Amino acid sequence: SLAGQTITEVITPVADDVVTSTRWFASLVSVTGAGWVESGGVPDTIEIGYAADICVLDGPGRLERVVINATHASTVVLADARGTIATLKASIAEGHYEYDLDVAGFLTIDLNGTQDVTVIHSQSLPTEYAMS
Fold first, then answer.
1. Are 66 and 101 in contact (CB under 8 A)?
2. What CA–CA distance (Å, rounded) separates 65 from 117?
3. Which residues pair with 86 in a beta bridge?
4. 128 with 117: CB under 8 angstroms?
């Protein structure tokens, strides 16, 4: 989990489809395929990657502000379990954007390209995350 606890998840493959985790992982230690078989001479494969959005708060909490440290030509989308909180427009000016609102379930940020952003929120996790 994002708070540092060890968690595991069993993901069951589906033929000819992509299966995605429903958990947030700060790091990945191992992946094991068990009970898989070849089909038509083609073995199953596991590909590890991540979505475009980054979870910065796993659980309820409070979004205080977003700091745009450098202007880039792409949007920044903030969301929680209820949906999109805000979409900061492409080429938004550097500065502090105040929110001071409760978030439900989690808080994600989708950078949609290269960004230099700091998200400040409350919870038992560290209060600042810098992403670049």
1. no
2. 11
3. 78
4. no
Q: Are 76 and 115 in contact (CB under 8 A)?
A: yes
By CB atoms closer than 10 A (0-12, 13-18, 19+), residue 109 is buried
Residue 70 CB neighbours (<10 A): 10
Let me know: does 104 contact 57? Beta carbons within 8 Å.
Answer: no
Phi, psi of 69 (to 5 degrees): -85, -25
Taking the CA atoms of residue 7, residue 115, residue 111 and residue 81 in that order, the dihedral angle to the nearest 10 degrees is 60
DSSP one-letter string for 35-67: S---BTTB---------SEEEEEESSEEEEEEE
If residue 121 lies in a helix (H) or strand (E), which one and from where to where?
strand 116-122
What's the pLDDT tens digit per position in 21-74?
Answer: 777 777 778 877 776 766 777 766 777 766 667 888 888 889 999 999 988 888
User: What is the DSSP-derived secondary structure letter of residue 75?
Assistant: -
Per the CB < 8 A criterion, the answer to whether 57 and 107 are in contact is yes
